[in-house]
Design a protein that fits this description.
The structure holds three protein chains of three kinds.
Chain A (H helix, E strand, L loop, with lengths): L29 H5 L15 E7 L5 E7 L1 H4 L4 E5 L9 E2 L6 E2 L5 E2 L5 E7 L2 H9 L2 E6 L6 H4 L13 E9 L9 E9 L11 E7 L3 E6 L4 H12 L6 E5 L14 H14 L3 E4 L2 H7 L2 E2 L1 E10 L5 E13 L5 H11 L8 E10 L5 E2 L8 H10 L4 H8 L20 H12 L1 H7 L7 E13 L11 E8 L5 E5 L8 H13 L6 E4 L17 H28 L6 E4 L2 E4 L2 E7 H10 L5 E7 L5 E2 L4 E2 L5 E13 L4 E14 L4 H20 L5 E2 L2 E2 L17 E8 L18 H15 L5 E2 L3 H8 L6 H16 L3
Parallel strand pairs in A: 1-14, 10-35, 12-13, 15-19, 17-18, 22-23, 31-34
Antiparallel strand pairs in A: 1-7, 2-6, 2-8, 3-7, 4-5, 9-18, 10-16, 11-12, 11-14, 16-17, 20-30, 21-22, 21-27, 24-25, 25-26, 28-29, 30-31, 32-33
Helix pairs in contact in A: 5-6, 13-14, 14-15, 16-17
Chain B lengths: L4 E7 L2 E7 L5 H8 L18 E4 L2 E4 L5 H4 L3 E3 L12 H9 L8 H14 L4 H7 L11 H18 L2
Helix pairs in contact in B: 3-4, 3-6
Chain C lengths: L6 E3 L4 H10 L3 E4 L5 H7 L6 E4 L8 E3 L3 E5 L4 H6 L1 H6 L1 H7 L5 H4 L4 H6 L7 H8 L2 E6 L2 E6 L4 E3 L2 E2 L6 E8 L8 E9 L10 E9 L5 E9 L6 E2 L1 H7 L6 H14 L10 H19 L3
Parallel strand pairs in C: 1-3, 2-3
Antiparallel strand pairs in C: 4-5, 5-10, 6-7, 6-10, 8-9, 11-12, 12-13, 13-14
Chain lengths: ~800, ~160, ~290
């Protein structure tokens, strides 16, 4: 172990130890899920409910000359067919910028753009009717490459131009900087489909044409609320959104669910009946948001002693036809481009371009250009681990590229060392690769610095609301505005509330978020779920205690300031023999008709950041993650097998150990999929592989061995110091795999995913059968010449 | 109008009779006609495994089985894995090992895992292969496979003297 | 959602099934349905009447005087696990174990894999190197067809209207003494399990004590409009020791036996290379490497 200052042991914020925090108690939702009794949207039905379907555009760019719905209306069981003119409110969606119609009226800009909606008594009738919708489309020029889209003569996706926005970070003059070793590279990183197991869906329940309830599979019930209110022309208070148990999100259910929700709502108002809209998998894959494809150009320089001198990064994001949240993604990518390294001169440009491709949105984790770090290390003949050690930020040098000082402790070096140790980095390299036959082994590092919670640009959304209700029997109801989508937010909220109240987690029930029960808490994204919910819960508990502690004090005959809550009791501080069960206190509050419900609120600290120059504090605090991957590559067939991943994560404080490990393991496997098998195959904007048959995600047989090191430290700002894990768990994995494959084969590969054809193509002349293509062509020519 | 057909089968140990359209899939008979919504539809093409049920003890993707084809046969869904209020050991293990996150793949996985346990002794690689038809996007499979290993070893300990 | 068919019939005998299939052009047999139901749902095939083959006794594996006979409705998991098939026709056992993941293997049948006639049909290369003969029941009785004549094009097979595949016979080859018999099946796809093959390969070689190849059969899937025998490659190897120069010739010859295309799963160039790699590995192993 390096003789560096170790992180200080964590302390809770004003709550007693021990308690459930950091443990492995049973997740509150696990039993219902494992028995199949949890009800997702598709499991909800109401008498008289109708089923929704959508007709979508097969073309990426076209003028709509007309839409004929007559045949659709004639299908038995159809109750309503709706086009743009029938939208009661505004025919617009878009979380940040209203550039997207709910239903296309005169123009389509992407394959899968909605043309019309159908509500029918059976799903068979609805989809049969949708197939009969005839749209008269006149093709228009389209652009399918984001770099091309930014050139002067590219077809315009919208009249106002194809450049959506440009972000920069400039520190000293990197453009003219020199260094002994300079690497230039261009990386093409593919998009990714979230592939949540539960397709997008929602249920809309109207009350006349005055109010509506939406039950939605989503990450952001408040976005859904806003979208539905806008589409129906209703005030926000008349739209109630309840988040249904949601079968996975990963960013894919951040903004997209607002669209099916608005569709179902329009149909519900048109028919006066509840309407359920569940997307078939193929349609879901074609139309829902995707990780942005990116083209990233690098020019980085280092001196002979292995110190980075400058970094220039130029990134173009393919936003697809509509902005969605592309600018948010770009902001994050912009400040994350440099990674956790000290670089004296930096010039980062991040541009977001419209194209007629798939709609780009959030995806858990953003790519880090660790590939260039490895290239530089090789050019300097330095061990990639050592090269990183010389350049990572630490407690002494902790200024990131925007000029922000990272709060201490900066754990990049610690995570790097722990992951490398777990992976057996030194032993692997000392022993030399175990190459047998065509198999080549390699090891690679991915190190990421993740800005937790919302970027400065999203500060206005960064607040969170909670409600805590102490029941007369001592059990506790908790409501928050952030959502559970599998990542463990419910568990985190339960754990934090139980820790704060000193009760058994089993007595705390966290119920689904509901826009009529709590205030707008922003989106559940950016790994902010546990953090924002937790802080609001702690606030609610603190406020509840102002009324609870005096009552407990009376029962205990002590000063209210000496009341402590632990092990299910209210006790006297320092005299644990004097105590009463919480149930007794709760009953007392109830019998005296004292208010046992309290709200809690949290908002992040305001900070300064200049979007034009990239100077300032884009994030409140940061987390570091390091993954070291070991791969075995079949150098003839190009098959990549990830054998091991060692992961070290700086998490502040562990809230629930199983949930934390589960997130890391899931993120790693999702990262491996992105890095090796998941490819969005587009043909003029149409997704050619919109199914699990041909969009290949990892199975149980692909899971590597995963070893995890958790680095805890005292944090400011998080509930008990917790930082967030949702996104850091994925970011470094894909690039660690890429670096390992390059290490194994000795050739650079600058495209993701590393599919077998991509690996074979990268080997080029080094492939054992490279001679075959020449031979084949020659043989073919000979045959032609010989007249055969 | 297409003539409806009568399908009689044993569902979770109970003999049941349903009146359905000829093109009715087993998954819809289970979810809509029998009201057992534990079995989930993730893709409708037999690729994700969320709809896995046992057909005469063998795991199958119910989205690709016609209700008519199941007539006269024995179907067990996730709801049928429990006995006398106790979870199947694999279900219990999934919970205690932390192998449940969003839960959507979980019922199908529970059924496939129960079948894997019944399949007999197997090494870790074989167990992973037996579950390869159940896609999960949340867990990365690690805790799921640990849960299965735990139960499998328990079974082997049971069987060997 | 319901699959768009109007009728599902369950005949009690093979001749009843054949009679329905012959009488109704909109009728099609269904066993495991793992390909057919997806096609019906996607609208790629339209069928008015499904003839369920369950209960016709078409599932089963039995030893005959000539070899092994597999009922057309036998599911893949039984074929993969059968001791006799594993011992005598290991390529087929291996292939059957790769047809989708476990739940698919419990339903997908040998007959379905054949009748679906995909160029990627996993069992086809193994059946080709085994010299399998198909028994086909029709209105006029039963006929027998070598598997090599069964595939006509992508999705097209030699079953005429009213005909039903009932069994597949695998003949036991007589092998001279002191011969080494080697049979292999390999499937290459984008991940380890549950894939439609990008290239599949089956090889069967009989090797003399002096290391020369007495007989060889090579077959590939996903590299041509149908599963194919690689006859030019076979000719290049036959009678010779599979040393490097011979293997090189065979790799070149192989390229004229196959005609891969670019499709959503892989480019042709990759398929050519992968096919050559699989052949090379087989021949090296046959040569004792």
């Amino acid at each position: 172990m390096s003789p560096r200052r170790r992180p200080r042991p964590a302390r809770g914020t004003g709550s007693p130890e021990p308690g459930p925090l950091g443990g492995r108690h049973e997740r509150p939702d696990a039993r219902a899920k494992v028995t199949g009794s949890t009800r997702y949207v598709a499991d909800l039905a109401l008498p008289g409910m109708l089923h929704a379907a959508a007709a979508v555009s097969p073309l990426a760019s076209a003028r709509i000359a007309g839409i004929d719905t007559a045949a659709a209306r004639a299908v038995a069981g159809v109750e309503a067919v709706v086009t743009a003119a029938d939208v009661p409110g505004k025919n617009l969606v878009g979380v940040i910028f209203e550039d997207q119609p709910l239903l296309a009226a005169d123009r389509v800009r992407m394959v899968g753009e909605r043309l019309a909606l159908v509500a029918a008594r059976t799903p068979e009738a609805a989809w049969a009717a949708a197939r009969l919708i005839r749209a008269d489309l006149e093709p228009l020029p389209a652009v399918h490459d984001p770099v091309e889209a930014l050139t002067a003569h590219a077809p315009l996706v919208h009249p106002w131009g194809n450049l959506i926005r440009e972000f920069r970070v400039v520190r000293r003059d990197a453009a003219r900087a020199r260094a002994a070793v300079v690497i230039e590279a261009e990386y093409r990183v593919g998009g990714q489909e979230h592939a949540y197991l539960e397709p997008q869906g929602c249920l809309a329940i109207p009350e006349g044409r005055r109010r509506i309830t939406i039950v939605a599979s989503c990450q952001c019930p408040f976005y859904v609320q806003q979208a539905v209110a806008r589409a129906l022309g209703l005030p926000l208070a008349a739209v109630r959104v309840e988040q249904a148990p949601t079968g996975g999100g990963f960013g894919g259910k951040e903004d997209y669910p607002s669209e099916p929700a608005a569709c179902a709502a329009v149909l519900a108002f048109a028919t006066g009946r509840p309407v359920r809209f569940v997307l078939p998998r193929e349609l879901d894959m074609q139309v829902s948001s995707k990780r942005h494809a990116m083209v990233i150009r690098h020019r980085w320089g280092a001196d002979r002693s292995g110190r980075l001198r400058f970094a220039e990064v130029d990134t173009v994001l393919d936003a697809g036809a509509y902005i969605g949240i592309s600018t948010v993604v770009a902001e994050r990518a912009n400040v994350s481009s440099i990674g956790p390294y000290h670089v004296p001169a930096v010039r980062v440009t991040t541009r977001v371009a419209y194209t007629n491709n798939l709609f780009g949105g959030a995806f858990r984790g953003f790519g880090a250009a660790e590939a260039t770090m490895d290239r530089l290390a090789r050019a300097l003949d330095l061990d990639p681990l050592e090269f990183r050690r010389r350049n990572v930020l630490d407690d002494r040098r902790r200024r990131i590229c925007t000029g922000q000082l990272l709060p201490r402790p900066v754990l990049a070096r610690e995570c790097l060392d722990r992951a490398a140790e777990l992976a057996g980095w030194d032993a692997f390299h000392a022993a030399g690769p175990r190459n047998g036959g065509a198999t080549r082994e390699g090891m690679g590092i991915g190190l990421a610095l993740y800005g937790c919670n919302l970027h400065h640009g999203g500060q206005h959304l960064d607040r969170s609301s909670a409600v805590v209700i102490l029941q007369p029997d001592g059990s506790v109801v908790v409501r928050v505005g952030l959502t559970e989508m599998g990542q463990g937010n419910l568990t985190a909220c339960q754990t934090i509330a139980a820790q704060a109240l000193g009760v058994d987690p089993a007595t705390v029930q966290v119920w689904q978020p509901d826009t009529t029960a709590v205030g707008d808490s922003g989106p559940t994204v950016a790994s902010r779920g546990a953090h924002a919910s937790g802080m609001a819960i702690l606030d609610a508990v603190a406020r509840l205690r102002r009324r609870l502690d005096p009552v407990a004090a009376e029962l205990l005959a002590c000063d209210p300031r000496h009341v402590v809550l632990a092990d299910g009791f209210a006790a006297v501080s320092g005299d644990s023999g004097r105590r009463v069960p919480m149930g007794r206190v709760a009953a007392e509050l109830a019998s005296r008709r004292i208010e046992a419900i309290s709200t809690g609120w949290y908002r992040s600290r305001a900070r300064r950041f200049d979007a034009a120059t990239g100077v300032g504090d884009p994030y409140e605090f940061y987390a570091v993650a390091c993954h070291v991957a070991k791969v075995a590559v079949d150098s003839e067939l190009g098959l990549v097998r990830v054998l091991d991943v060692a992961a070290a994560h700086d998490v502040g404080r562990v809230i629930h150990r199983d949930a934390l490990e589960g997130q890391i393991q899931g993120g790693i496997v999702q990262g491996i999929g992105w890095g090796t098998t998941e490819e969005l195959k587009l043909d003029r904007g149409r997704l050619m592989n919109p199914s699990f048959t041909d969009y290949i995600i990892p199975t149980a047989a692909d899971a590597p061995r995963i070893a995890i090191a958790i680095v805890e430290s005292e944090g400011r700002g998080g509930p008990f110091g917790a930082k967030g894990i949702g996104e850091p768990s994925l970011i470094p994995a894909a690039v660690a795999v890429r670096n390992a494959v390059v290490d194994a084969l000795g050739v650079e590969i600058d495209r993701l995913p590393l599919t077998p054809p991509a690996v074979v193509a990268a080997l080029g002349g080094a492939h054992r059968f490279a001679w075959l293509e020449e031979e084949r062509v020659r043989g073919g020519v000979e045959e032609v010449v010989a007249g055969r | 109008m297409t003539e409806r057909i009568t399908v009689t089968l044993t569902l979770n140990g109970e003999r049941r009779m349903f009146d359905v359209a000829p093109g009715r899939r087993l998954i819809d008979l289970i979810r809509e006609d029998a009201g057992l919504t534990g079995t989930k539809e993730g893709c409708g093409a037999g690729e994700c495994g969320a709809c896995t049920v046992l057909l005469d003890g063998a795991p199958v993707t119910s989205c690709l089985v016609l209700a008519a084809s199941a007539a006269g046969h024995d179907v067990v869904t996730v709801e049928g894995l429990q006995h006398d209020g106790a979870l199947h050991p694999f279900q219990e293990a999934l919970v205690t090992h932390g192998g449940v996150q969003c839960g959507f793949c979980t019922p199908g996985l529970a059924v496939a895992g129960a079948a894997a346990v019944a399949h007999g002794p197997a090494d870790a690689e074989t167990r992973a292969r037996l579950l390869a038809g159940n896609l999960c996007r949340c867990t990365g499979y690690v805790k799921v496979l640990e849960a299965l290993a735990d139960v499998a070893q328990g079974e082997e300990a049971h069987v060997s003297p | 959602m319901d699959v768009p068919v109007q009728e599902v019939l369950r005949p009690a005998t093979v001749s009843e099934a054949v009679a329905v299939l012959a009488a109704r052009p909109d009728a099609r047999p269904v066993a495991g349905g793992t390909d057919l139901l997806v096609q019906l749902r996607d609208g790629r095939r339209s069928v008015g009447c499904l003839v369920d083959l369950d209960g016709l006794g078409l599932a089963g594996i039995r030893r005959t005087s000539d070899g092994i006979e597999i009922g057309a409705a036998t599911p893949m998991d039984r074929i993969a696990a059968d001791a006799g098939i594993r011992a005598l026709f290991p390529a087929l056992a291996a292939a059957a174990g790769t047809v989708g993941a476990w739940p698919i293997q419990c339903r997908a049948t040998l007959g379905g894999n054949l009748a679906n006639a995909s160029p990627a049909a996993d069992t086809a290369p193994a059946l080709l190197v085994a010299g399998a003969v198909l028994a086909i029941a029709g209105p006029g009785g039963t006929r027998h067809l070598p598997v090599g004549e069964f595939f006509l094009g992508p999705g097209r097979c030699a079953l005429a209207s009213g005909e039903l595949l009932v069994s597949v016979a695998l003949p036991l080859a007589t092998v001279a003494p002191a011969r080494r018999v080697m049979e292999r099946f390999v499937k290459v796809g984008p991940r380890r399990e549950q894939v439609i093959s990008v290239v599949s390969f089956a090889g069967r070689a009989v090797v003399r004590p002096d290391g020369t190849v007495e007989a060889v059969r090579l077959a590939l899937g996903s590299v041509a409009p149908t599963p194919v025998r690689a006859r030019r490659a076979e000719a290049a190897v036959s009678g010779r020791r599979p040393e490097e120069a011979v293997r090189r010739e065979a790799a070149v010859a192989l390229q004229r036996d196959i005609a891969p295309i670019d499709d959503v799963r892989a480019p042709a160039a990759y398929r050519r290379v992968a096919a050559a790699v699989l052949l090379d590995r087989f021949l090296r192993e046959a040569g004792g490497d």
